[in-house]
Design brief:
With 115 residues, the chain is an alpha+beta fold. The protein is built from three helices and five strands, in the order H-E-E-E-H-E-H-E. A five-stranded antiparallel sheet has the order 3-2-1-5-4, sandwiched between helices.
């Protein structure tokens, strides 16, 4: 993690904590692996609530739209998932990773919040 990305991730984790404390149902997406050209480094975060609001970044463009959509399912089922996007995947062109890279994103529900 570089100094440039560290404050941003701390802000996203603070946002996740605040949203959870406010009683919002949320999920946290984290880049867990990259290969080749990838827009965001390992450890990058995206926090998503059950209404589809989000802050942060795990990639950009359509990849984030796909992650948000999957995160809503994770919130509803409370079951984490790992997503993979890459050029070998036919969906790579659809979700914006035609740059030749690959990323894996772990999406987990954040339990807690106000009653």
């Amino acid at each position: 993690m570089t100094l440039e990305t560290a404050p941003s991730n701390l802000d996203i984790l603070a946002t996740a904590e605040a949203w959870s404390a406010a009683g919002r149902k949320i999920a946290l997406a984290t880049v867990i692996e990259t290969w080749g050209s990838a827009p965001r480094p390992i450890g990058s975060h995206l926090v998503i609530d059950s209404d589809g609001n989000f802050e942060g970044s795990v990639s950009g463009g359509c990849v984030e739209g796909a992650v948000v959509s999957e995160a809503i399912d994770v919130i509803e089922t409370s079951k984490p998932t790992t997503l993979e996007f890459g050029v070998a995947d036919e969906t790579a062109w659809q979700v914006g990773l035609s740059c030749g890279g690959r990323i894996r994103v772990y999406v987990e529900p954040v339990l807690g919040g106000a009653s």
